[in-house]
């Protein structure tokens, strides 16, 4: 069991399969690809809807840039969430941790040290909260759902307390933070590059390093992974810290976009992130999944919101559409798993 | 700092960059707080002998927990108003967003036999019963903003005018566009939480006022009263409409996000009107540096006025400028329009978001 399938989209099955023949592996790989094809097809379908209903608005470069910028914040969080879920866990605290990091980084005393310290502070708070999640889950033996739920509540409370429920503006002196969102390079705001960089690094970490392979192993079968000599506890802890770090990065992006830190940031991000990961073909039980899939899932959500607003439809309809998409995506996933076994 | 287990965790995490950096990044917000509203007192204090100390009065106060700058300002305004009177003992219960807890909080105030109650309910319908209990026990209830359905449940209601707020915004936008001679203007509306009656009232007032100029709302989209939702919705709306003439955004807190999205998209062909009247929005209007040209108030100073009314009612006095011997049964505050011209005058009344 030391060998874990390195293929990016077809990791080891959710159960140990020592007798898996190479041909079956190949079939799985193709199915993995097929899932991406499905996601891409869904995006193309949405794009066609956009082109038909609002030809003059949808396909403009500024609209596409806007969609990418909207996807960036939660996209970074989704990358972290993908790691945690592939590793067999769940992180419900992402939105709250991002809010806490944004508040901590925008208190007047933090702001007095300038933008660099603000960024370091956001990253440190995010990583710290993630590490605490990881400690509680790995060494405190708490169920991930409970530990991160506790963090969700506590982090939001602490964020409210720290900000006295106020919206904290990024001061004029620290406008370098806001420049992340307003400065454009080759037509794209800097924060989109941050997003792309996080996705690229996440992809490499998951698919091209031992760490990534261990993540699949730990999520697929922790006992087997332990017998294979992987320090499952430490690995799990690091996964949550990684998710926290992503929340910290997202906090910097949200500060740039909204020019504020606030305890209300990131409300229900955990659900959006988990939904995107699931639609992207990652199993909630862990052991398989892909970052590209998660990002495609997230883009589907962002494009839907964009399409609905372009067409002047209200939020309730968006929510119904999102719910339907989650159900359809998971049903299709189940079919593909059944046919592969 | 170490007596709080939650924070201990963050210090642990912060050890990554060293404890020193974390201490620097600690939680102090002092300057912002001291800059907060200090002048709610100017509002509604009736002239004449009413301000002279009278019979000592204990005022009970219950409001939702602050999850928003406006609610935070409500609590602060009430407290500041109470401090102005030497004959008032202010008894505030722990604010909560849980209906059940607010009911027991009000019950505890009834038990404590306060002279008069000021209640901003989480939900008027659901708190109606306990307010009625207070009235039945002979404690007058001042109903703040969110109204109890049963008139036997309160002595006096004071609150803002959501419909009027929409009307004020509609008139400002309608008149400005008319003066500019724009025909068929593109007018956008960014609401707060769409399912709330207050949002629907605001939108109705807005549409009605615009109609008098022959204009209609081109597109309407709801956000969630948060900065982040404001950014999201505005970024998409700006894509949907390539040329906009005016935007009304229902809430100044959410407006910070809307303005950030506008800045990011580098758009300035339109003007924007805010809502609620935060100090921050007023400063922007005063500086006249961006698209925000006005805001229509829904002022949290009403909490200060409610305390003043509670004191008068408990002391059996009327409002000395009026002929009646007793405080009126209801007071609807006018929604005022703040522009560059009068921003300086209103700034002390604005709340820090």
UniProtKB/TrEMBL annotation, chain A:
Superkingdom, natural source: Bacteria
Membrane topology: Multi-pass membrane protein
GO cellular component terms attached to this protein's record: plasma membrane
Listed transmembrane segments: 34-52, 64-86, 116-136, 142-159, 185-206, 237-256, 291-310
Residue span of region Disordered: 1-21
Compartments, record wording: Cell membrane
GO molecular function: transmembrane transporter activity
Name under which the protein is recorded: ABC transporter permease
Species of provenance: Microbispora oryzae
Organism phylogeny: Bacteria, Bacillati, Actinomycetota, Actinomycetes, Streptosporangiales
Automatic annotation (TrEMBL), chain B:
Domain Periplasmic binding protein: 59-317
InterPro entries assigned: Peripla_BP_I (IPR028082), SBP_2_dom (IPR025997), TAT_signal (IPR006311)
Gene Ontology cellular component terms for the protein in this record: cell envelope
Principal cellular location given in the protein's record: other
Keyword Signal assigned: yes
GO MF terms, alphabetically ordered: carbohydrate binding
Cellular localization per UniProt: Cell envelope
Keywords: Signal
Alphabetical list of Pfam families matching this protein: Peripla_BP_4 (PF13407)
Family: Belongs to the bacterial solute-binding protein 2 family.
PANTHER family, sorted: D-ALLOSE-BINDING PERIPLASMIC PROTEIN-RELATED
UniProt name for this protein: ABC transporter substrate-binding protein
Record organism: Microbispora oryzae
